[in-house]
Design brief:
mainly alpha, 389 residues, 0% strand
Length: 389
């Protein structure tokens, strides 16, 4: 048992130290609002881990401090998760006030529960309060986790919306596809569900001797190391103005507003006749055949719209509504076709697949393999081998 206590003690201290270093780095980097929002995750988690350290060493003063600043994590981190993602695509002035509004529940929780419970444990004030708090802690935890789950779902749909918007605009998305945030959201979802199951267990069965929440604390250390590593290098994501307006955070639009925007979007090309749309398609095809703009690995929607002498919004609508695709898939279809054409020529047999992929507009081996298999049903190497038979 003593060895187990020492191991837990070491992990908690190491976790708090690592999180503290991440906070110092983020606050000193001074690289924008998103990094500051990210630091709140680590600050809160330091106190969350401190609670279990205090529990392990039976320290009431440390426990009181931990409750004051680490309790109610779901009410705090739910809004911060959503608005951290929003801060990657929106300016700071559009983030602060809405975030404070979404933190209303946390502020109420802190005044009515966290602060009195903290003073009861550490200073002996409200002596009966902490004992009563312990009796209903599992119920509160379930409410908190439910609240957090709502924001996890909203965050998931926001990431999905951003990724869709990127595919509408760029022929390359690997550097800003927010895949790591998707993994983070899945990890948080699993932790919240498991934590809720622990609370349900403690409500039904007798409490076990060791604090079952320590498992959650360990899981958070691993997940936040992942968050810290990726979050420090996540850059701001640029979207064209018309897409930024059509893809705001899901919490900022009502169902009616969504419906109205969709109806307006469908009508954007109504001013064009069928003949004019046909002419646009011909011009687009001629551009692709003659100039091969898709060979440019940084090709964007606006650049191609300039070549066609139309707005990027109209080009996006042409692709979406009349060609049933988005810019990312449309351009990569031509890149794959170009790769296949080169692989069929004897003069390219001496070149590596990756060099051919770069020549055809792909930016990385990972994106090339994934897109090629998606379009052809087989890997590039298997496709090349099939040509040799």
């Amino acid at each position: 048992m003593q060895n187990w206590v020492m191991i837990v003690d070491f992990i908690l201290i190491a976790g708090m130290s690592l999180l503290f270093l991440l906070v110092v780095f983020l606050l000193k980097s001074n690289t924008g609002l998103s990094k500051k929002l990210l630091s709140v995750f680590f600050i809160n988690s330091i106190f969350f881990l401190l609670y279990y350290y205090a529990y392990l060493h039976k320290s009431r003063p440390l426990g009181g401090i931990a409750i004051a600043f680490g309790s109610g994590s779901g009410f705090l981190l739910g809004p911060f998760l959503l608005f951290y993602i929003r801060s990657l695509i929106e300016p700071a002035e559009k983030i602060i006030k809405p975030l404070l509004l979404h933190l209303t529940v946390f502020f109420i929780y802190w005044v009515t529960i966290s602060l009195p419970a903290s003073l009861s444990m550490s200073a002996g004030l409200f002596k009966e309060y902490h004992a009563q708090y312990v009796q209903i802690a599992d119920y509160i935890n379930l409410v908190e986790n439910t609240y957090f789950l709502v924001y996890i779902v909203l965050s998931y749909y926001l990431v999905k919306s951003i990724r869709n918007a990127r595919e509408q605009t760029y022929s390359f998305i690997e550097g800003s596809n927010l895949l790591w945030i998707s993994y983070l959201i899945i990890g948080l979802l699993i932790i919240v569900v498991v934590d809720s199951l622990f609370s349900v267990y403690e409500l039904i069965f007798p409490m076990i001797p060791w604090n079952i929440g320590t498992v959650i604390a360990f899981a958070l250390i691993v997940l936040y190391c992942f968050l810290g590593y990726n979050g420090m290098f996540q850059a701001h994501i640029l979207l064209p103005q018309f897409l930024a307006e059509e893809n705001p955070a899901p919490v900022s639009k009502t169902i009616t507003e969504k419906k109205q925007k969709k109806e307006r979007s469908v009508k954007q090309l109504d001013s064009f006749t069928d003949e004019e749309i046909a002419v646009l398609k011909i011009k687009l095809n001629e551009l692709l055949v003659n100039k091969k703009p898709y060979l440019n690995d940084t090709l964007s929607l606006s650049e191609m719209a300039d070549d066609l002498a139309i707005t990027d919004k109209k080009l996006s609508e042409l692709l979406n509504q009349h060609l049933s695709t988005n810019f990312y898939n449309f351009i990569n279809k031509y890149r794959v076709a170009e790769v296949k054409e080169k692989l069929a020529q004897a003069e390219y047999r001496k070149y590596t697949l990756l060099s051919i992929a770069y020549d055809c507009g792909f930016q990385s081996k990972t994106s090339f393999n994934r897109v090629f298999k998606q379009k052809t049903g087989m890997s590039p190497s298997k496709y090349r081998d099939s040509l040799a038979k």
